[in-house]
Design brief:
The chain has 14 helices and 16 strands. It is an alpha+beta fold. 37% of the residues lie in helices and 18% in strands.
Length: 553
């Protein structure tokens, strides 16, 4: 067989100077442009990209403005958590106390501790149920799928639990938390990660993110990440001025008074992360092309796309279809899960910052007034007659000390007059306790006072007290349970589509799972019980069921 020069290709240059060649016809290159998920922005004209970018950025700004009241309430209440030291400049006078009332922070920490214990057990968060008829084989597949997910979330994905714990703090305080479930192409496995509330923007004209026309994830990427995305054809290869090094940057770009394309890039010369908008939206792309005819596209149904926009340069980096290739209905692929502490009047939920934030500010103010009143009563200030030879303006008398004072012949009782500071107000103290009790009841953190009750209190009565006392907390856990179910099912869905063969160890037993081990009848659910929010309550319920079974088997 004859071999032409075109069939011989150098593959690698070795360290010893020799080379490795490959003989045969070159492999067919993958046509990324014709792929179903190809970057459509490459085929778009510059004018069409600008029109689409302007339209989306303007819509996102309106979405950001619509959520501002929700964020402002959180920011005002955040400083009263007492997690950071207050600036001394903000105190009304130098001796004023800077203590914080702990009712708000206690409610948040209690929510975190309770929810974390219920949702994230050490053995893993996933359980399963069977939809339809069950047999031994389906039960085996369900147990295998459950064990694999628990192993993956507790062992293989080491950051999942720590990320979820941090997420719970934001959820309880902000009232809404967002997680993104996606397949990481670099790690080649699914990930579920928390999104900062400020970095997720929703089109507010909807009842849930499942019906939202526009979801925007604000990514903060480093220079390395952006360049790697461009090299791997994830982003369009477009020149971004802020990625240039100082050696390659023109003088005009370093001049803070000059702009390029109406964008002042001097502000970003020393930044390490850059904002990228990932917009999940419905579009009719023909509306933005030069030859788009309104008469032909006005009745066309918009389709789901993912559009990536560089916020600084306003350049569109990618446009990709967001539905499965085999899906005739072209339904949007979902990546995001919204958790709510309590449902709000809009798309965003209500958290502890909104529920008891105002009361926390009042409690901190009242507490500081009480402490300041006690300080002035114990160490009072006052007035003294003019003309003393005493040079120091302050007379400090310690315990057991007698200080000589030259009053110039004036009786000592007439030379000094202490200001009439009163004791800390009892009425103010009672008012503070009343507000604290209101906050505890609203946040479902009040104590039951079990030690004051009878020792032989019936189990049913105890369960009734627990359910009444934790009614709000139970409602919160039920809402979180629903969202957590959706998150686990999205992770399971990715494994169903991508898993080949995996070996894992459960209870010192080597197990193996393949894509064929996933069954449609198996539905992944959290192992937590949303109607029970503590281990004692679970034990009491089990004891009550046992007593009933013994009395009436």
């Amino acid at each position: 067989m004859k071999t032409s020069d075109d069939d011989i290709r150098k593959i690698e240059e070795l360290e010893d100077g020799s080379s490795v060649y490959e003989v045969g016809p070159p492999p067919a290159k993958e046509d990324k442009e014709s792929s179903f998920y190809a970057n459509l922005a490459i085929k778009f004209s510059e004018e069409a990209r600008k029109r689409l970018s302007s339209f989306l950025l303007e819509s996102i700004e309106k979405d950001i403005e619509a959520r501002q009241d929700w964020l402002n309430s959180v920011e005002k209440a955040k400083q009263y958590l007492g997690f950071s030291l207050e600036d001394l400049k903000n105190t009304p006078f130098s001796q004023a106390t800077r203590t914080f009332d702990t009712t708000l922070s206690t409610a948040l920490i209690r929510f975190y501790a309770t929810t974390r214990a219920e949702l994230l057990p050490q053995s893993g968060p996933a359980g399963f149920k069977i939809n339809g008829n069950s047999d031994e084989e389906i039960e085996r597949k369900g147990e295998l799928t459950r064990d694999w997910l628990n192993y993956y979330l507790t062992v293989q994905d080491e950051s999942y639990y720590s990320d979820y714990e941090r997420f719970l703090l934001y959820l309880g305080f902000y009232g809404s938390g967002f997680k993104k479930v996606y397949y990481d192409k670099l790690l080649k496995r699914p990930l579920s990660r928390f999104i900062m509330p400020e970095d997720f923007v929703i089109d507010a004209d909807c009842t849930s993110i499942l019906e939202s026309n526009r979801l925007t994830h604000i990514l903060h990427l480093s220079k390395r990440e952006i360049i790697l995305n461009q090299q791997n054809d994830i982003y369009r290869d477009v020149e971004l001025s802020y990625l240039k090094t100082l050696e390659n940057t023109d003088d005009d770009e370093l001049n803070p008074t000059k702009k390029k394309d109406d964008v002042d890039i001097s502000v970003y010369n020393k930044r390490s992360l850059f904002p990228i908008y990932e917009v999940h939206t419905y579009l009719n792309l023909q509306d933005f092309t030069e030859d788009g005819d309104d008469s032909k596209t006005e009745n066309t149904v918009p389709l789901p796309y993912i559009v990536t926009i560089d916020k600084i340069s306003k350049e569109i980096l990618s446009i990709r279809k967001n539905w499965k290739e085999e899906d005739a209905e072209k339904e949007r692929e979902e990546y995001f899960v919204q958790y709510n502490y309590l449902p709000g009047f809009g798309i965003y939920g209500i958290g502890l910052a909104h529920l008891i934030g105002s009361n926390a500010i009042t409690l901190t103010t009242v507490l500081r007034q009480l402490v300041d009143a006690g300080s002035f009563k114990n160490l009072p200030g006052g007035l003294r007659a003019k003309g003393f030879k005493q040079q120091n303006n302050d007379l400090v008398v310690g315990p057991g000390q007698f200080v000589e004072v030259d009053t110039g012949g004036i009786p000592l009782s007439e030379a000094f007059m202490p200001l009439p500071y009163s004791e800390p107000s009892g009425a103010l103290r009672e008012l503070r306790l009343e507000i604290v009790n209101q906050c505890k009841e609203l946040a479902s953190t009040s104590e039951m006072g079990m030690l004051q009750s009878k020792e032989d209190i019936p189990t049913g009565t105890t369960l009734a007290l627990l359910e009444t006392n934790n009614r709000i907390q139970s409602a919160v856990l039920r809402s979180i349970h629903v969202s957590f179910t959706r998150e686990l099912q999205l992770i399971d869905k990715i494994f169903r589509n991508t898993l080949d063969t995996q070996e894992f160890n459960v209870e010192n037993q080597q197990r193996s799972i393949t894509g064929n081990d996933f069954a449609e009848e198996v539905v992944i659910i959290p192992i937590s019980d949303p109607s029970i929010n503590s281990a004692p309550q679970r034990m009491m319920k089990a004891d009550s069921i046992l007593r009933t079974a013994l009395q009436a088997p």
